[in-house]
Every structure is written in structure tokens, then in C-alpha cells.
Write a structure and sequence with these properties.
The protein is of the alpha/beta class and 253 residues long. The protein is 38% helix and 17% strand. It has two domains: 1-34 and 82-122 and 169-253, Rossmann fold (3-Layer(aba) Sandwich); 38-79 and 125-161, SIR2/SIRT2 'Small Domain' (2-Layer Sandwich), CATH 3.30.1600.10. The chain binds 2'-O-acetyl adenosine-5-diphosphoribose. Residues 25-27, 30-31, 36-39, 43, 54, 104, 122, 162, 164, 190-192, 194-195, 215-218, 234-235 line the site of 2'-O-acetyl adenosine-5-diphosphoribose. 2'-O-acetyl adenosine-5-diphosphoribose is lined by residues 25-27, 30-31, 36-39, 43, 54, 104, 122, 162, 164, 190-192, 194-195, 215-218, 234-235.
């Protein structure tokens, strides 16, 4: 299938859809300047050892460096702006009211773009939480970052994100599964599809008969199948083009 045929198919499926899931990963924020985890020379897991930052035991050991690393990422997430891909996803929701964004991202850029219904599978960088008492508070300012000590109980503070070996937020996978098994179209955007259990979500959709549209400049390792449409390209280019073809409106603004 040529890329033009694939775009036309994706747009027509989306136009006819009553229920849509947009499943996203780090790639959708790449054009905003947020580094991905695995896909480029400056990606996060090439810069730092994942064991020292994204596993609870490593995070505890690697203090205060790991605390500061997340504080810098939280500050960066606040500084950057949503891109054309995020805005196109908002346009999809406006045309298909029964839509849900299921994201692995922790940067809140979908919400800042205007997405109303966002299911965060891996938590967020809006708040910190205490390992011991679970108390939450907003991220302190990077310029005067205190020690990561909970004011209530003296426990170690951490970002309100899901680390490896930890459970996803209660009910999140159930809700994602319900949507994925009942949607007409699932767009899988900017994810390497490597981290379980999120990686199951496009499979639930294709097994339940939905059309799965994959948007990624690098399609290697992505699922294949008759109901799967591959669109090679950046989400900030491809998603506005799908929206334009589906509804004749400019989806990138
Ligand atoms: P990855 O870094 O694994 O994958 C990013 C994907 O985005 C790659 O497939 C890239 O080809 C693609 N990509 C890059 N630029 C893009 C663009 N402009 N438009 C569209 N796609 C683009 O990130 P995730 O799949 O999100 O988990 O990683 C999943 C999880 O692994 C993260 O949530 C995080 C990480 O470890 C935790 O921290 C628990």
C-alpha cells in the first residue's frame, strides 16, 4: 500500500468511527523537544543507566542525583509546548466525542493541548509523592530544590510516576482494555511498543476487530496484520494530515 493509500484508509476509517482510542508514547512529544527513551542519540536511556533512575531500589540508592534528574525533567515538561501532533489529537476528539487518549507519557502535554479525557498509564510529573506515607505535593521549584524529604513523615520523596517493577495506577489497564476492545479505530503514535503491559493495548484493539493505525518514523518492530495501517512519519506531520483528509479541517493548530 502506498503511503497515500494508507493515509486515505486511515482518514476514512477515522471519519466513520464512533469510538476512538489514541495510544501515545514518547515520540508524540519529541517535536516539542522532550527526549524519547530509546529512539535517538540523545534518548534518555542512552544518557543514564535506567537501573539507577527508573527502578525503585536504584532510585533510592542514587540520591540525590535521581531526585534532581526527575526535577529537571518536570521543569522541562513545564517549559515546552504541545506540538502539531498533540493539537491534531484534540481535533480528533472534537470530531469523535467518544474518544480516549491513553498515554505512556508523563509530561502532561496532551492535557495542555486541550485533550479532555487522558488516561495516564505511567503517572505524571505534576506531583511528587512520599515513598513511605504516600502524601502528594506539587513539584518544588528547580532553582531552590530542597532535599527529597517528606515534610509529614521524613520519608523519601519521589516523582508520581510508575517505575519498572511497580504496578500501574489502579484500574488504568482495565479502563484501557475496555476502550481498546470496544473502539473502531486505535491510533498508536510514537511508541516503540516495548514496555509491558502497555504493549498489549494495540493488540486488544486489533484482536477485537478495530483498525489500528500506527504512526512512527521508524516502523521496525511494530505489529503487522491485515487490520493494521502503517504511516511512516512524524506525528506532527502525519496526524494533522489525517485530520485534514478525514474532516477537511486544519488539525495542527
Ligand atoms: P520510546 O523511546 O521507547 O519510543 C519512542 C518511539 O517514538 C520510537 O518508536 C520512535 O521511532 C518514535 N518517534 C520518535 N520521534 C517521533 C515523532 N516525531 N513522531 C512519532 N514517533 C516518533 O518511548 P515509549 O514507547 O513511550 O516507561 O516508551 C515506553 C516507556 O518506556 C515509557 O513510558 C517509559 C520508558 O521506559 C517508564 O518510565 C515506566
Amino acid at each position: 500500500m502506498s503511503s497515500d493509500d494508507a493515509l486515505a484508509r486511515a482518514a476514512s476509517k477515522l471519519r466513520d468511527a464512533g469510538r476512538v482510542v489514541v495510544f501515545t508514547g514518547a515520540g508524540v512529544s519529541a517535536e516539542s523537544g522532550v527526549p524519547t527513551f530509546r529512539s535517538a542519540a540523545n534518548s534518555l536511556w542512552r544518557q543514564v543507566d535506567v537501573a539507577n533512575f527508573a527502578y525503585p531500589a536504584g532510585y533510592r540508592r542514587n540520591q540525590p542525583a535521581a531526585w534532581r534528574w526527575y526535577a529537571e525533567r518536570a521543569a522541562k515538561a513545564r517549559e515546552v509546548a504541545p506540538n502539531a501532533g498533540h493539537h491534531a489529537i484534540v481535533a480528533i476528539e472534537e470530531h469523535v466525542p467518544a474518544s480516549l487518549v491513553v498515554t505512556q507519557n508523563i509530561d502532561s502535554l496532551h492535557q495542555r493541548a486541550g485533550s479532555r479525557r487522558v488516561l495516564e498509564l505511567h503517572g505524571n510529573l505534576r506531583e511528587v509523592r512520599c515513598f513511605e506515607c504516600g502524601g502528594r505535593s506539587p513539584w518544588p521549584d528547580l532553582a531552590s530544590l530542597p532535599e527529597p524529604v517528606c515534610r509529614e513523615c521524613g520519608g523519601l520523596l519521589r516523582p508520581d510516576v510508575v517505575m519498572f517493577e511497580e504496578e500501574l495506577p489502579a484500574g488504568a489497564m482495565d479502563e484501557a482494555r475496555e476502550w481498546a476492545t470496544s473502539c473502531d479505530v486505535l491510533l498508536s503514535v510514537g511508541t516503540s511498543n516495548e514496555v509491558w503491559p502497555a504493549t498489549e493495548i494495540p493488540r486488544y484493539a486489533s484482536r477485537s476487530g478495530a483498525t489500528v493505525v500506527i504512526v512512527n518514523p521508524d516502523l521496525e518492530g511494530q505489529p503487522i496484520g491485515r487490520s493494521i495501517v502503517h504511516l511512516a512519519g512524524k506525528s506532527g506531520d502525519v496526524l494533522p494530515e489525517i485530520v485534514r483528509r478525514a474532516w477537511g479541517v486544519d488539525g495542527g493548530l
